[in-house]
Amino acid sequence: MQLYKRSVLLMTVLMLTMLCIGCARPPKAEKAAAKTAMDAALSAGADKYAAADFAAARELWDASEAQVNEKKYDEAKKCYIEARAAFEKAAGGVEAGKKAMTAEAEAAVARLEEGWMKLEAVAKKIEKKLEKKNLWEIDSKTFAEGLKAAKDMITADPAGAKAKADTLKPFLDSYGAVFEQMAAAPAKTKVTKKKARTVED
Question: How much is the mean pLDDT over the chain?
């Protein structure tokens, strides 16, 4: 009799377990809410202006997706809820991040403008020493256009403006080094060339 009771109890537990497993469903509502929050964060620019928070939220989203694939629906549900909150936090941090990025972009552009003025002044001093004057003129025009583009982007897209400014900096560094060497080198005079020809004759 006692064995029969134990068997019935065991069968009941197994049936309840199977029933729970059969009733478990993917957390569609929580996933949809997290996806909406992620899309809103992306639209606000959280991936650029609240990158750390957005990356953390994205990790939670990926973890949720992995748990769904493993049919761990309870864990996935909790993770989707956390992901939604994290995406909302990232979206909330966009304004402050954009403000900070705007300040960085303005500072970067100001440094470029200052460096450009100095480089132009040096270029005028060593104009006669420039062997590839046409190349300098083309490069300087391209740089000036890029600098203007970066400056114009600051208000609408400070992250893009900062990135643009970063690509322009090597121009100043490379030409600055070349011009410094040219300025330090002694100029070749016509007298020296005349002497050289006399020796050859």
Answer: 85
